[in-house]
Design brief:
The structure is a homodimer. Chain A has helices at residues 3-11, 37-49, 63-72, 82-86, 106-115, 130-142, 157-167, 197-200, 205-221, 312-326, 334-353, and strands at residues 28-33, 53-60, 78-81, 96-99, 119-122, 147-149, 174-184, 225-233, 246-253, 257-264, 266-277, 280-284, 294-298, 301-305, 357-358. The first copy, chain A, is of the alpha/beta class. The first copy, chain A, has two domains: 15-151, 3-Layer(aba) Sandwich (Rossmann fold), CATH 3.40.50.720; 157-309 and 331-358, 2-Layer Sandwich (Dihydrodipicolinate Reductase, domain 2). The interface between A and B is large, with 43 and 43 residues. Chains A, B: Keywords: Oxidoreductase. Chains A, B: This is D-xylose 1-dehydrogenase Gfo6.
Chain lengths: 359, 359
Amino acid sequence: MEPDDVRSYLDSFSHRDWQESDEEEGPVRFAMVGLGWWTRDEAMPAVEESTFCETTVVVSGSAEKAEEVVNEHETVEAGLTYEEFQDGEASDAYDAVYVCTPNAKHLEHVEAAAERGKAVLCEKPMEASVERSEAIVEACREGDATAMVAYRMHTEPTIRRARELVRAGAIGEPVHVHGDMSQGIVGWGADQWRLDPELAGYGTSVMDLGIYSINTTRFVLDRDPVAAQSTMHSDHEYFSEVPDEVAAFTVALEDDVYATCTASQNAHMSSHLRITGSEGTILIEPAFHGESDLELTVGNTTVEVDTPGVDQMEEEFDYFADCLLAGREPEGMPEHGLVDMRTLAAVYESAESGERVEI
Amino acid sequence: MEPDDVRSYLDSFSHRDWQESDEEEGPVRFAMVGLGWWTRDEAMPAVEESTFCETTVVVSGSAEKAEEVVNEHETVEAGLTYEEFQDGEASDAYDAVYVCTPNAKHLEHVEAAAERGKAVLCEKPMEASVERSEAIVEACREGDATAMVAYRMHTEPTIRRARELVRAGAIGEPVHVHGDMSQGIVGWGADQWRLDPELAGYGTSVMDLGIYSINTTRFVLDRDPVAAQSTMHSDHEYFSEVPDEVAAFTVALEDDVYATCTASQNAHMSSHLRITGSEGTILIEPAFHGESDLELTVGNTTVEVDTPGVDQMEEEFDYFADCLLAGREPEGMPEHGLVDMRTLAAVYESAESGERVEI
């Protein structure tokens, strides 16, 4: 890199290297399905700031909540209950849906949208089980619906720079990875769908948090998982129905690169992703909680990049809309998400059996 | 902590909180058994700078090498071959032995020393197998020899501060740990005892490097291992006789705290130990390669302590000598080291079987 290039490299940490559409194109009109805090406080404000997206319909289990959100947002034309959405009401008013319900409720909404040929942006993990995720893949194929699992790290510039560095051989051959995402949800009370296996699926910490380490490692290393080993444990009363108040798991990826990870919904909020290669190390910390900073060490030289950050949800929505407008496939298609679901299932199976599980 | 205390806390990063003897006491006279680069370049210079120790005898497989080292050091009275050492030559000239031969040669030298009631400082891992390590424990008991496994992290001030912080509840209850020690030994050539299972034992990366993550976690958390899971792999031709060119392993400790670790003898040199608790995180990085810096995060506040460091070998030798002079037991006794050996064996067994192994 010439000294002149340093400036443009730093600029790349807020640059959309994926954008193909002109800024005047769009908007892609979204129905927001599920009006929990993530949709209202993160997704909808991001869409409001976005280049290519607009929220025109909101869908909730509660007609009152839907109505309240309609009244709060100028662009929103209709507030629907889940039943009304399933019945196809106001379906001319949106081009795409964002599904952000409890995991086990994704399938029905994806099916309803895909049947009508709507594009689908579905929160991660895709569903509560591998089987139900396969049904999502099938529904999107049948409806010929462009669909993406909402992996916001795919459009986080720091993560994209990490992938470029690995691809360019900056750290030599990847050898091993450490990943963690932990947070404390006990303060949110006992009544949470994340603690209910009927709604969350196999468990809570690995399903909800561990998936970040798994998917981001896949994305940065361009390698898929081949086997998993894990140990998990629940002790706190809130976690009595799920096996993983805390979990430690190792995912073996192609070329025998090992990612060794932890996840806990009852720990200090922290996250990092560390990739050690034959000639250097990339540390991303914080990694998954809304901002991502990068540290690259090659030999004895370390470069730290501390970014102001982007709105990860805005990037994600605009990326998906850009793909729709440009008529190309997004990276995180349901077939891609299914690999994570099979990995998650292997992690939970290994914790139960104590044995290494092939994926 | 009052502002006044900040100064004394920083001073504690170079303070010997363990020292009981007066500086005039000693010296404890050491026979250095095994004259590889670690003994000559690290241990002997450390002893030369130490408060309580002196090298008076050196022992090598080669009479010429022993003679050479005798000529280089004023305090050294005798240079012996292994046979002469076994036969008890010059045994009045030393009080203690430092055993730094290939792992599988530790036992014979420990036995010879313990039989004569000499104190024993034995490099880690203790021996090549659990069985041979049990024989070391037995030999030291029978000879009533004060013995310690050379865990230099036990007297690294940063590690001791980390233990104090955990004990004081600074990060709440420990939840999970990440540990790594990696380095590149391919540049040292194909002819290394670390790559020969006859001399190294179960393998190379976990035996030689992974033990740092295991033992330091035990030390800092005051918890012992109960089970292990692991995956390992060798690809490079130099590693054809050992299973672990790279390894990822999880050790479950008492109270269901999980330590998830990596070790590789064919990767970029790196090491860290990260302990996440319910209320904070301690990151030690670098951790195991001769210096140790500490970062403590509680809530949103992070304190970084970047120390000039101590000579870890000097601290270790003086600690052992201080124990001898004060007539107390050291922390890292062979019984303590045996727990690591059982853990190492479980890690290798799990890699082979794919199953979780109880310790």
